[in-house]
Write a structure and sequence with these properties.
The chain is mostly beta strands. The protein contains 3 helices and 23 strands. Strands 1-5-19-7-16-20-21-23-22 form a 9-stranded mixed β-sheet. Strands 2, 4, 6, 12, 14, 15, 17 and 18 form an 8-stranded mixed β-sheet that branches.
């Protein structure tokens, strides 16, 4: 097992990043992560205006996977997510999030965590669901900020990227150059305030290279559901892309023609929002595995 320290971080995913470790396909790697503010906030009195916005959304890594070549698929089996603080950070500010236009002053909040729950203002208690906000590989072209999602993964902020799930990503450059960070103790679909419960943690993943498999990536699966993930400038575009990718996944990997695949999605699938606050918006299309099994569909096949 390989351990990656949280001092080894990147702020953009790039083919030019130097790997901090090289591993064989099938290796377990433990990533220790900073929070999305690079741990700059430790008390609620922290001045929002004093934050260094060049140090936002760090991802620990990247890791070079031996044998990974452009056109391959990187399978990321998320084995464990362990939170390493008993408090999380949240912020609101004018101009940030969905209704930041109604805010007049920034606010920094420290949210205590105890007994597997986060304790928010007003006596609201929310059960924890640790998830990974930033997770991806180097793009094939220009560098992309860790704060921006895309076909390479990145800041997708999908609340289904949790322990027990498997994420499938494209390999765009030799070695893939995989990195992750931006853990949330919990987050709702949309991430409407511009953040989740931002927190530090430790993530164990198994990284494996799949050869000769064509998929509409990124894709995600858990015990119950297959997902296509898509990010675009507008929510409409992201929704259309996620739906289109799932329809073609069905048509390309089953006996159904495209028109019948679309009808299946319209009845049995769910179009869902991941986040609406990043430079690109992210949606996911969910197909229950009960339906996928009837069509003999599997991401791994």
């Amino acid at each position: 097992m390989v351990q990656i320290d949280n001092k080894q971080v990147i702020y953009a995913m790039s083919r030019d990043n130097q790997p901090v470790a090289t591993v064989k396909s099938g290796t377990d790697v433990v990533f220790n992560t900073c929070d999305c503010f690079s741990d700059q906030i430790v008390v609620k009195e922290t001045e929002f205006t004093q934050l260094d916005w060049q140090r936002i959304n760090p991802a620990t890594g990247p890791v070079f996977i031996e044998g990974a070549e452009p056109g391959d698929v990187l399978k990321v089996n998320i084995k464990r997510i362990t939170l390493t603080r008993d408090w999380a950070v949240m912020v609101t500010a004018p101009g940030l999030g969905v209704i930041g236009d109604e805010l007049t002053t920034p606010q920094v909040s420290i949210i205590p965590i105890a007994n597997d729950h986060a304790h928010l203002p007003g006596g609201v208690s929310v059960k924890l669901q640790p998830m990974i906000g930033v997770i991806g590989v180097a793009p094939g072209g220009e560098a992309i900020s860790c704060g921006t999602p895309g076909n390479h993964g990145g800041n997708m902020d999908c609340k289904e990227i949790v322990a027990g799930a498997t994420l499938w990503l494209p390999v765009n450059v030799p070695g893939a150059l995989f990195a992750l960070g931006d853990l949330h103790a919990a987050m709702g679909d949309g991430e409407v305030s511009v953040c989740g419960l931002e927190i530090t943690g430790e993530v164990t993943v198994e990284l494996s290279i799949i050869k000769g498999r064509r998929l509409p990536l990124p894709m995600l699966e858990n015990d119950d559901t297959l997902f296509t993930l898509a990010s675009a400038l507008t929510l409409d575009e992201a929704a259309n892309m996620a739906t289109r990718n799932m329809a073609h996944f069905i048509a390309d990997n089953s006996t159904l023609p495209l028109d019948d695949a679309i009808n299946v999605l319209s009845i049995a699938g769910d179009l869902q929002v991941c986040q609406v606050v990043d430079p690109l918006k992210t949606c996911r299309f969910a197909l229950p595995k009960t339906i996928a099994r009837q069509l003999a569909l599997s991401i791994a096949d």
